[in-house]
Amino acid sequence: MTIAFAGLGVMGAPMARHLIGAGHAVTGYNRSPDKARAWADATGGRFAATVAEAAGGADILILCVGNDDDVRQVVTEALLHLAPGAVIVDHTTTSARVAREMADLAAASGRAFIDAPVSGGQAGAENGTLSVMAGGDADALGRVQPVLRAYAKAVQHMGPAGAGQLTKMVNQICIAGVVQGLAEAVHFAEKAGLDADAVYQAVSKGAAQSWQMDNRWATMADGRFDFGFAVDWMRKDLGLVLDEARANGSHLAMTALVDQFYSEVQSMGGSRWDTSSLAARLQRRSNDAAD
After folding, report:
1. Catalytic residue, candidates 35, 153, 168, 191
2. Which of 92, 58, 60, 56 is nearest to 73 (CA)?
3. Which of 48, 46, 113 lies closest to 75, judged by CA?
4. Which of these, 32, 105, 160, 265, is most buried using a 10 Å CB contact count?
C-alpha cells in the first residue's frame, strides 16, 4: 500500500523502516528535514519536505509525533491530500479528546482516523514487537491491521475513537506504580547489604516478576539511566492521565505521587533519563540524609 509516515524519531524511523521491509511504498516526513532525508537514504524510502507532499494520494497516513497540537497540525495539513477513503493511524500518545476531534474531522472528509498508541518503547519499535491499542472504526482498523503487523506483535481494538488513548493511560498508570515499587525494592536491597544480582534471581521467578524487573533491575542497581523512555515523555503521558482522571472522577493518588517524583528527577537534570531513574531520586535522598 502507499503509505505516508509523519514523525521519524526514535520510534517512528524504525517503524517506517519495517513497513518498507514488508514491501510498502513509504514516503517519510519529519519536522526536521535532515532526519527525513537520512531515513530515506538509509531505507530507500521517499523523502517529503512537507506534510502535504507526503500525504499526496496515500492510502494510509501514519503519525508518530509529539503531542495533541502536533497531531492536529499534521492531520489538518494532510487530510485533503490523502486518497479518498484513506485511513489515518495515529501512534502518538495524546488525549482522548483530540482523538475524538480528529476522528470527526476525518469522517467529515470521507476518511477514517484510528487512535493507536503503542507500548514496547524504542526496543519494541526496533524489533517490530510493539503492542497497539486502537480506538475508532473497527472496519477501518481491519483494513490497516495487516500493515501494522510489520512492526506490531499485537493489535487490539478497544472501542470507539479515544478508547486507544484511554487504554494507553491505563498502561502508563501500571508502569508508574511498578517502576516506583521496583526502585524502592532496589534501594532497600542496597541498604540492607544484599547482593542485587542474587536478590533478582531469588524474586524474579515468583509473584514479583514483571517486564520492568527483567529489563530494569540490573540497570537500576548499577545506576545507569542514559537510555530508554525519557522522564519528560513519561511526565507528558502522566499529565494526560491525571487530566482524564479529573474529568472522569478517578482517584489516582499513587499516579499523582509518582508524577511528582518524576518532577524531582527532572530537577536533578534527569529529563532525558529512562523512567527507571526513580531509583536515582532515592539514592540522591539517601546521600542528602547522610550529609
Report:
1. 168
2. 92
3. 113
4. 265
| CA–CA dist 119, 132 (Å, integer) | 7
With a cut of 70, which residues of the chain have pLDDT below it?
none
Which residues, 6+ apart, have CB-to-CB distance to 88 below 8 Å? 60, 61, 62, 63, 75, 78, 79, 82, 102, 106, 111, 112, 113, 114
Is residue 199 a contact partner of residue 209, using CB atoms and an 8 Å limit?
no
CB atoms within 10 A of CB 194: 12
* Structure-derived torsion over alpha carbons of residues 265, 237, 68, 146, reported in degrees to the nearest 10: 130
User: In Å, what is the CA distance from 284 to each residue of 131, 187, 214, 280, 281?
Assistant: 34, 11, 24, 6, 5
**Residue 153, pLDDT score:** 98
Short-list 45, 14, 225, CA closest to 129: 14
Active site residue 168: yes
pLDDT tens digits, residue range 3-56? 999 999 999 999 999 999 999 999 999 999 999 999 999 999 999 999 999 999
Per the DSSP assignment, residues forming a β-bridge with 226 are none
- What is the predicted pLDDT for the residue at 173? 98
Cell digits of residue 163 = 478508547
3-state secondary structure of 189: helix
Task: State pTM to two decimals.
Answer: 0.95
Q: At what angle do helices 163-191 and 211-222 cross, to 10 degrees?
A: 40
Report the C-alpha gap between 66 and 218 in whole angstroms: 30
pLDDT for the residue 291: 75
* Residue where the block lists cell 491491521: 145
**Would you say 150 and 128 are in contact if contact means Cβ atoms under 8 Å apart?**
yes
As a whole number of angstroms, the distance between CA 266 and CA 234 comes to 11
